[in-house]
Amino acid sequence: MVEEHIIKYFHPGLNVGLQDIRNAWLLSNPPVKLQITLHRGTLAYRLPGSRRRISYNTLKKGLIKKHILIQTDFQLLPF
User: Is the Cβ–Cβ distance between 17 and 7 less than 8 Å?
Assistant: First the structure.
């Protein structure tokens, strides 16, 4: 089964797409959902297994409005 996500905003320099403020995706092959963290009171996104943070303010500066459809595999619960 496949899930479809519509990306509304895209940052071409970082290759990151925003579905909404809580759902950010790294648009690689396959697309990876970024984790949300708070760093010193500001919203930041982090790749799973990485220490690098991308703040929302940095991401917001280069966003362009673009509709992209990505498909991911549907993940079943492990129990």
Answer: yes
Strand 16-20 versus strand 35-39 pairing type: unpaired
C-alpha span between 57 and 37 (Å, rounded): 13
Note the Cα 28 to chain centre separation in Å. Answer: 11
C-alpha gyration radius of the chain: 13
- CA distances for 7 relative to 19, 30, 37, 57, angstroms: 4, 15, 20, 18
Task: Please answer whether residues 42 and 36 qualify as being in contact, where contact means their C-beta atoms are separated by less than 8 angstroms.
Answer: no
Cα 48 from Cα 66, distance rounded (Å): 25
What pLDDT score does 4 carry?
93
Give the model's pLDDT for residue 49.
Answer: 86
Q: Mean pLDDT by 10-residue block, N- to C-terminus, for the chain (79 residues)? A: 93 94 92 93 92 93 94 82
